[in-house]
Design goal:
The complex is a heterodimer of chains A (333) and B (797). Chain A has 333 residues and is of the alpha+beta class. Chain A is 28% helix and 20% strand. The radius of gyration of chain A is 19 Å and the shape is globular. Chain B is α+β, with helices and mostly antiparallel strands and 797 residues long.
């Protein structure tokens, strides 16, 4: 790890004033310090926002919820309102990483964590996402990589929280000292590698995430998230699914189906959503939605098995959201 | 061990001339317990009864150093802090195969805070060319990415890391191969330009060095019993399978590391090692020092699993830097180096064929095995095929396949988890083909008296009774299954094992040996032995281990520690107690034979005096200290009971839609002679089961095929079982007396389930699904592919 200095800030304004000359924001530090220890990033200056108390906490509003970006995953998953009305988010945050990490990791940092591709994470492989020419995964080892929506880089979206927040239609507020505030949807937060492989998200060097707004779910909404790994304790998803169902009695008025480990950026599956719209939730309709969730997928040399896993993850999570099935004992976390 | 010892090889060790005849308990209490006669040296202590009639030995006495470990007071090698100590960091090759053209250390040397740079001239661990002239070069040829090339020592770890990055190495890269199957093909790049062999370590490993080598294929090492063609002709049924297992790394919690302090009159080395004696020998040999000028200390040790013997590259580097700088040097490897350069369990690719009569009698076992130990050797895995069952004929061929990867070392039961994975699944296939119960089939072919008892315990268990003998009986996507498998290990004795016992005039007692406690708990057992002999609680005993200044201890490999050392400890304790009684008897007005040591007291059997506390009796000693040293006496009867094993049952859920396997419950029925401390023994079995599950389902060293680098050199993407992967483990410890020594202990390190749990899981998966998964790790793609292949086969049929 390189030498660096740290500026400790306790207010948003102070932190924003420090964001210059290549300084990097450090919140929980979980992913940033990994990248520095792996030798793939060498920031000379860190701005520690961990102690900016105004950025931490969960607020209920008339429109829904506002999360401070420094709220920890543990605080989110344990929150009674989130557990009862935003189940998908409680599931995702409560099954990410390990209990230790959930106590340190902030939701803002979780959204902005970099991909876990072993080539990207190794200083021995200087890949396209470090500004070089090559992606090593196509010819190399790619069992954990993407099956859809890639052409430049097949790494997969690592954040479970993002899968849930995309499902809930959340918006992220960014603040810059110079340009003020702007608000973006979850999908718009990210930059797909085909557009720009070295930029992972749209957050500018002088910007901070200052809030995450989650709209109040429509009446009759039920939701769930499940992730599957090779391990059940602390593993990255090899398949996952977020499901939000707006129900009219037994009938699904509108469904949102989201996936993380299928593509470089979190995605919704319009096919799976269409398969449920206007239908009752049964094992049959759930399986039909799962089957179309991988439509158009094109696996790499070693990850065709994900074409089997995602339909299962999707149908089981639909049934979990609908209350027709228990949480899957196979699901990780 | 270089080759797996057969019964014959093990019986060649000569016994001491018989001198007195004793009756010893032999067998399993409640099943087969009886007495057998032994002729033993007259100096041996009286025979101990079975555990239930002992007071401290055989009891689950709390771990001697449990509190020190739990509170952080225990000082491991990485905690050693010496005045003026420097921190070393290695420079490792980042290419898999290359000649080193030059190493420029000038920039590193100029960095403020750097005190020394060392360029490596001799790399340890790799195979060595039979004709070294074939690859003569200024610097050692790089055979794998991660091979140490140079090292720096600096005043802080951060400066050392920075300096290591400043060392410029120029490589002339060579073609390489990291795929075992490609390495076997003609025309593959060769790892070595000619035949090369690897020496094993005190913990085993290393391959046969008498065999041919063709390209990268070092072998075959062939072993034959009877007429194999006749054997298959005589068979009523033949079952066959092709099994593939992956490379696993040891991944002990504590990485390899040393602190070396080179002084003119003494090289002191704090080492994380499984063999203090082996470390001293290798340092003395490498640096041409007299043994008297090397001292090795291992106060606490955080696991080794076979990878930590000798000085190794880290030890040599640290000592060289200490010599050069005149300061103590600490070198602890990081996790990546640990994965790459200090050992692993070789892979295997086995084609196994078994012929049998209708009644289950085995007529033929034929095994052809290839495996890679990287740029080392030692991938043989025929041990279980040789030693688990009776057969009319056997033919095994073992081949090492060189690839450009770090050399293997011994790893917990070398060759046996791989061998048992194939053998025990093939035996399960045979049971299916013969429509026999898997336990009945083993009763027919396995004559080991203790495993017979262990199978009976399995038969009587609720878990086994819950097994549906019909495979794939469950409906729905998640299917439950139960599977059984067996293991075999060997009784090997480190005859140099020695111990000293001291009785002080204040009544305190010490047990002393250079043996290292690698976590299995030998310190506690030593205290228990003295407690039993002197009749005082174990908490009153002080145990000192892990220092070559003490009498030599055994290496902790091959399950040798407890069975080798404890008889020496007991003999020393017995002799010290006899000296003690002889010394104090006159002052008590009686003879030594009238005295007994019991319940913390010295008593006169004839009632010559009121019972005296041990402490008050010790005050009557004529000198301040009574000591006795003893060395291991040979096993009492090397004609029998030289293998042991244990059996395991796994219950799994197979999610057939996801290809996920979840191990629900494990029943482990294991023996290790006289269990000295059941809790500690059970802990080792728990660990063996967890390590075996992790190996079977998760762990995998992954090498990029294009660049030859490991892509998962951490404990995140190198996946190891976590809390949720650990099932309910029910250990039934079988007391199996064999009448071999004054303690009659055996070891448990290897025979702790790690050999058999993989096959038990495989057999459970078959029982659940009717499909056999012949490849590890059994990840979702592997399981789904097996399920799909089976479905396709059924459609065709």
């Amino acid at each position: 790890m390189n030498r660096f200095s740290v500026a400790d800030c306790t207010s948003v304004d102070a932190a924003l004033a420090q964001l210059k000359d290549g300084a990097q924001v450090k919140a929980g530090g979980v992913d940033l310090l990994d990248r520095m220890k792996d030798g793939i990033e060498q920031p000379t200056r860190l701005v520690n926002i961990r102690n900016v108390s105004e950025l931490r906490g969960i607020r209920e509003t008339d429109q829904g919820l506002t999360l401070g970006p420094l709220t920890t995953l543990a605080e989110i998953s344990d929150h009674p309102v989130i557990q009862s009305q935003y189940q998908i988010l409680s599931d995702a945050c409560g099954h990410a990483a390990t209990p230790h990490i959930r106590n340190m990791a902030t939701v803002g940092g979780n959204l902005l964590q970099r991909v876990q591709c072993w080539y990207y994470r190794s200083s021995d492989f200087q890949c396209i996402r470090h500004g070089k020419d090559l992606c090593f995964a196509f010819e190399g080892l790619n069992q954990y990589h993407a099956i859809m929506e890639y052409s430049t880089c097949p790494s997969v979206a690592p954040s479970s929280a993002a899968v849930a927040l995309l499902g809930l239609g959340a918006a992220v507020e960014l603040t810059s000292a110079k340009r003020g505030k702007r608000t973006l949807g979850i999908r718009e937060l990210y930059i797909v590698p085909d557009a720009n492989p070295t930029k992972f998200n749209v957050v500018e060097p002088d910007e901070l995430i200052t809030a995450i707004h989650i709209p109040k779910p429509a009446p009759g909404t039920r939701s769930a998230y499940q992730k599957y790994g090779e391990k059940e304790s602390f593993d990255w998803a090899i398949a996952d699914a977020g499901v939000v169902l707006e129900m009219d009695g037994d009938r699904c008025r509108r469904a949102v189906i989201t996936m993380g480990a299928a593509s470089p950026v979190v995605r919704r599956s319009p096919q799976a959503e269409a398969a449920l719209a206007g239908k009752p939730i049964t094992e049959e309709t759930a399986r039909a939605a799962g089957a179309v969730a991988v439509q158009g997928a094109s696996p790499l040399t070693q990850n065709a098995y994900k074409l089997d896993l995602f339909p299962v993850a999707v149908y089981r999570t639909i049934l979990l959201a609908a209350g027709q099935r228990d949480r899957d004992p196979s699901a990780a976390g | 061990m270089k080759t797996l010892p057969s019964e014959n090889a093990l019986t060649q060790q000569a016994a001491a001339p018989p001198k007195k005849t004793v009756e010893m308990p032999v067998g399993v209490p409640g099943y087969t317990l009886r007495n057998e006669s032994r002729q033993i040296p007259p100096t041996e202590p009286p025979v101990w009864p079975i555990n239930k009639d002992l007071k401290y030995v055989g009891q689950s006495i709390p771990r001697y150093d449990g509190e020190a470990k739990a509170t952080g007071r225990a000082r491991y090698t990485s905690d050693v802090q010496l005045p003026g100590m420097l921190y070393a960091k290695c420079v490792n090759a980042n290419v898999p195969h290359a000649k080193v053209l030059s190493i420029d250390t000038s920039a590193a040397e100029k960095l403020p805070g750097v005190r020394g740079v060392h360029v490596i001239q001799n790399v340890l661990g790799n195979a060595v060319l039979r004709n070294p002239a074939l690859d003569a070069a200024k610097f050692p040829v790089v055979r794998y990415a991660g091979q140490p090339v140079a090292a720096v020592a600096a005043i802080t770890p951060a400066i050392a890391e920075e300096a290591a990055a400043l060392v410029r190495v120029r490589y002339d890269t060579r073609p390489f191969v990291v795929d075992q199957n490609k390495a076997r093909q003609p025309g593959s790049p060769n790892v070595y330009p000619g035949p090369a062999d690897e020496a094993g370590s005190a913990g085993g490993g290393g391959g046969d060095d008498e065999v041919q080598q063709t390209g990268n294929v070092h072998g075959p090492s062939i072993s034959k019993v009877g007429n194999i063609d006749q054997g298959f002709q005589d068979a009523d049924v033949i079952v066959e399978g092709h099994y593939v297992t992956q490379v696993q790394t040891h991944s002990a919690l504590e990485t390899h590391g040393v602190v070396a302090d080179w002084k003119p009159d003494l090289l002191t080395v704090w080492a994380s090692t499984q063999g203090t004696a082996s470390v001293r020998e290798e340092f003395a040999g490498f640096f041409k020092l007299p043994m008297s000028k090397v001292r090795v200390i291992t106060e606490f040790m955080g696991g080794g699993f076979g990878a930590k013997f000798g000085a190794g590259n880290p030890g040599v580097i640290a000592a060289a830097l200490s010599k050069k700088t005149g300061a103590p040097v600490r070198l602890m490897l990081d996790r990546e180096e640990e994965h790459l350069s200090v050992g692993n369990r070789p892979s295997s690719d086995q084609t196994l064929r078994i012929g049998a009569k209708k009644d289950g009698t085995l007529t033929a076992i034929h095994l052809v095995a290839y495996g890679t130990a990287g740029c080392g050797t030692g991938a043989g895995c025929a041990g279980p095929a040789h030693n688990l069952y009776q057969y009319a004929s056997l033919h095994t061929e073992e081949n090492d396949v060189f690839i450009n990867a770090g050399p293997a070392t011994a790893m917990r039961a070398p060759g046996h988890p791989q061998g048992a994975f194939a053998l025990e699944q093939t035996m399960d296939d045979l049971a299916v083909r013969l429509a026999m119960d898997p336990l009945d089939l083993r009763d027919k072919t396995d004559q080991h008296p203790v495993r017979r008892v262990e199978r009976q315990i399995v038969r009587d268990s609720d878990l086994w009774k819950s097994r549906n003998p019909v495979a794939a009986a469950d409906h729905g996507p998640v299917k439950r299954g139960v599977g059984f498998a067996q293991s075999v290990w060997y009784r090997m004795v480190a005859m140099s094992s020695s111990a000293e016992v001291r009785v002080h005039r204040d009544g305190s007692l010490e047990a002393i040996s250079a043996v290292q406690d690698i976590g299995s708990g030998i310190k506690t057992v030593m205290a228990q032995i003295l407690a039993e002999q002197f009749g005082v609680p174990p908490s009153q005993i002080v145990v000192r281990v892990g220092d070559t200044n003490f009498p030599e201890g055994p290496a902790s490999g091959g399950s040798m520690t407890t069975l080798s050392l404890t008889p020496a400890v007991r003999d020393a304790a017995w002799q010290a107690s006899q000296k003690f009684l002889a010394d104090i008897a006159p002052s008590l007005g009686t003879t030594p034979h009238d005295l007994v040591l019991v319940d913390g007291e010295v008593r006169s059997q004839s009632g010559k005096f009121q019972p005296l506390s041990f402490r008050r009796a010790a005050a009557k000693m004529s000198a301040s200290q009574i000591t006795a040293q003893a060395k291991r006496v040979p096993d009492y009867d090397r004609s029998k009971y030289l293998t042991y094993g244990g059996v395991d049952v796994a219950e799994v859920d197979v999610d057939t839609e996801l290809g996920r396997i979840h191990v629900r419950r494990v029943l482990s029925v294991h023996d290790c002679g006289r269990p000295m401390n059941p809790q500690q023994t059970i802990s080792q079995i728990n660990g063996g089961i967890i390590q075996g599950i992790s190996y079977t389902l998760l762990e995998h060293r992954l090498l990029d095929p294009v660049y030859g680098l490991m892509v998962n050199p951490d404990l995140d993407l190198y996946k190891i079982a976590g809390a949720r992967e650990i099932p309910q483990i029910d250990v039934r410890l079988v007391e199996a007396y064999i009448g071999q020594s004054s303690t009659d202990a055996s070891g448990i390190g290897e025979a702790a389930g790690v050999m058999s749990i993989g096959a038990a899981i495989g057999n459970a998966v078959y029982n659940a699904t009717g499909v056999r998964v012949r490849q590890t790790p059994m990840t979702p793609p592997v399981v789904l592919a097996a399920l799909r292949a089976s479905a396709a086969g059924k459609e065709q049929a």
